[in-house]
Design a protein that fits this description.
mainly alpha, 23 helices, 70% helix
């Protein structure tokens, strides 16, 4: 049974069982889902991208993360409301099909697949950059090795994916908590080379809180990088079809979003910028690694560099996981080649994962051609494609809530706070981010590429529909 054939009036238990009908194994437990949710909010955008944000906006980057974090919470609760209404694999494209139309589902599925391919390239690039901290080897060699190893791990089983993500996330969480505690010790006890100068007044004394060249304008221009840092928090929606108890596990994971953001982003940056003046950070350098070096804790810098390496590999691992499942969901719905539906005995989508991993090797070539600029070249493409999934989540939640309020659909047991208005606010914020991307010459190229990608998808959709005009994948649901 494909997800197109799932009756919308099924109750929660029947919907929760849809994954077994799709051939997936429910192998992800509560421990793994929780750490996937936590780890999804901690990645290269924080560990590497924050360096560029600090140099541009100064301490006000903290405010940018806090405001964007609120929007992410609204997005995740909107997703949670939909997931508890009907938890399915490939949830974003499936909800788009149901509440907007088949073309929206087609575009969402393929765009989210593109997002993870591009993100995989981004993260492999970051990982290769981190390797140069220890060894003077070409970035493309590291990028190739990481791509091949993670591809192999993802073909074994979803349980192995869950275990890798659990330990990757555990390393990231432990490192950030440790950094916060060390910074707190420096501020209160005064040990290390930074002990004599550390002060929370660094947040406003060095040019003010909005210390960027253009004040608040500089803060706004960091929103694209800030939103990139949060990309992948929605990954719990993709895991819905392989969660052992989605009705219990997913709400708990989603409700951890506020404290994750408060601790790992706002809290960590407050502590780092209090210990090391923001003027000493440089773009392209991890602020976590730089902070330890400024403190005179060389071994700490090496440890943090290992942590940020695992963060990048974690995100790439998630990309390998997501892409195969999105391609299979599209194929099951007649919106992609049928060979993507094939599963291994362990329940992993072999062909889809292989195809996606092959495209991720483009990152190897990018690292070979432009080792110094590779990260910046691809990050804007990842942001614009990832935000499309968020837009679809919010629009679908608005349409679902309206139908549920009229009694046309069963009410979700996990309603989003603020209802429709919270989603409208989040959509407006995403619109602001897109505007700022258009104002930045380094990010504008992604906006040029978006219409081209849309045109390619429109042509592909029309071709598929012409071949099978009566297919269920092209019929709008009532």
């Amino acid at each position: 049974m494909t997800s197109v054939q799932v009756d919308q009036q099924h109750d929660g238990n029947e919907a929760a069982d849809s994954a077994s009908g799709e051939g997936y194994h429910r192998a992800l437990g509560a421990r793994q889902i929780q750490m996937i949710a936590i780890g999804g909010a901690i990645g290269t955008g924080l560990f590497l991208g924050a360096g560029k944000g600090i140099s541009k906006a100064g301490p006000s980057l903290i405010l940018a993360y806090a405001l964007a974090g609120l929007v992410i919470f609204f997005i995740m609760r909107a997703l949670g409301e939909l997931l508890m209404y009907r938890p399915v694999s490939g949830s974003f494209s499936e909800y788009a099909r149901e509440f907007i139309g088949p073309f929206a589902g087609f575009v969402t599925g393929w765009t989210y697949w593109l997002f993870w391919v591009v993100t995989g390239i981004t993260e492999v690039t970051a990982a290769a950059t981190y390797m140069t901290y220890w060894w003077d080897i070409p970035q493309w060699i590291s990028a190739l090795v990481f791509t091949v190893v993670l591809y192999g791990a993802n073909l074994i089983s979803v349980k192995l994916f869950g275990e890798l993500e659990f330990w990757f996330s555990m390393v990231k969480v432990t490192a950030i908590v440790g950094m916060i505690l060390i910074c707190a010790g420096i501020l209160t006890i005064g040990f290390s080379d930074a002990g004599d100068t550390a002060s929370i007044t660094h947040l406003w004394d060095l040019g003010g809180f909005f210390a960027g060249e253009n004040g608040i304008g500089s803060t706004l221009m960091t929103l694209q990088m800030v939103m990139f840092a949060f990309l992948a928090v929605e990954l719990v929606g993709v895991t819905a079809g392989e969660s052992k108890d989605p009705k219990t596990v997913l709400p708990k994971a989603i409700n951890t979003v506020p404290w994750r953001i408060a601790v790992f982003y706002v809290g960590a940056l407050i502590m780092i910028l209090s210990v090391v003046p923001w003027t000493e950070f440089q773009p392209g350098v991890s602020p976590f690694v730089a902070a330890f070096e400024k403190m005179g804790l060389g071994i700490g810098a090496a440890i943090v560099n290992f942590v940020v390496l695992t963060a990048a590999l974690s995100s790439c691992n998630s990309g390998m996981y997501s892409t195969g499942r999105m391609l299979r969901d599209l194929a099951l719905n007649g919106q992609g080649p049928a060979f993507f539906t094939k599963l291994t005995r362990s329940g992993t989508p072999l062909v889809g994962t292989t195809f996606s991993a092959a495209l991720m090797t483009v990152g190897v070539w990018i690292n070979y051609q432009w080792p110094g600029d590779a990260f910046n070249y691809v990050v804007s493409f990842a942001t614009i494609s990832g935000m499309w999934a968020w837009i679809m989540i919010l629009v679908c939640q608005i349409r679902y809530r309206r139908k549920a309020d009229r009694g046309l659909l069963p009410a979700s047991p996990f309603k989003a706070p603020g209802g429709i208005w919270a989603s409208v606010f989040a959509l407006a914020f995403i619109g602001l981010v897109v505007v700022t991307m258009g104002m930045d010459k380094d990010n504008r190229v992604a906006l040029y590429g978006a219409p081209v990608w849309g045109l390619v998808l429109a042509v592909a959709y029309l071709v598929l529909k012409a071949r099978n005009p009566e297919g269920a994948a092209f019929a709008k649901r009532s």
